[in-house]
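ok new one. same drill as before - structure tokens go in, u give me an amino acid for every spot. 227 of them this time. try not to just spam alanines like last time pls lmao
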């Protein structure tokens, strides 16, 4: 009897709590709506007033400037061809100082004229002196360097060249003791350069049979310009 009574009371108690929850849920729902309404009203009522900040910007007036007139740059001048390295040509003998072909049968050694005795007078002006071996340049590369060193720089840059024919009086040691212009190149500076250069060039001495003799020879100095 007691067990049945307790079960009935427990059942009644559980239903009552459920009913109370259902009844209170409506109160909680409407109470939440009212509370949310009050909070939103207070938020809008007491929230600080918002103002928009001025984000505008000013524009500075630009002043137009006049550009200077366009300058036309002239084209560069044509490049001047550089002259080639001066070339010393082979010794040339003029007809008036050469001798006709001879043989020892027609001209015995005993009949050959002796070397001139007065060398100082021989070197005054170009004259013919008998010889069997003509003078030659000892070092042609060195001779070219000497001529190049005396080649006026201004004429090199301008591409001006030419040939100067000179008379050279070469002593028994192969040294040039006197020089004269035989035929000008047409440029006084080139003529002067050739006359200065020849005194520094060394030659082999001329021989008349087995004896060294001083002689005059015609010699060209060539300042060559490339084509």
């Amino acid at each position: 009897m007691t067990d049945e009574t307790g079960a009935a009371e427990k059942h009644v108690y559980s239903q009552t709590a459920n009913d109370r929850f259902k009844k209170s849920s409506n109160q909680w729902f409407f109470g939440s709506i009212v509370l949310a309404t009050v909070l939103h009203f207070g938020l809008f009522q007491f929230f600080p007033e918002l103002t928009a900040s001025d984000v505008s910007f000013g524009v500075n007036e630009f002043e137009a400037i006049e550009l200077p007139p366009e300058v036309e740059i002239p084209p560069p001048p044509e490049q001047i061809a550089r002259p080639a390295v001066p070339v010393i040509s082979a010794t040339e003998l003029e007809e008036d100082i050469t001798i006709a072909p001879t043989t020892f049968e027609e001209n015995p050694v005993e009949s050959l004229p002796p070397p001139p005795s007065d060398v100082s007078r021989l070197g005054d002006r170009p004259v013919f002196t008998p010889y069997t071996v003509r003078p030659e340049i000892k070092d042609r590369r060195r001779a070219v360097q000497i001529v190049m060193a005396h080649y006026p720089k201004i004429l090199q840059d301008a591409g001006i060249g030419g040939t100067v024919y000179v008379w050279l009086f070469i002593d028994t040691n192969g040294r040039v003791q006197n020089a004269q212009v035989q035929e000008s190149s047409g440029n006084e500076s080139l003529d002067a350069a050739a006359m200065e250069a020849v005194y520094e060039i060394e030659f082999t001495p001329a021989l008349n049979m087995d004896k060294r003799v001083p002689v005059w020879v015609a010699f060209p100095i060539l300042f060559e310009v490339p084509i």
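The chain has five helices and five strands. and btw Residues 1-43 form one domain.
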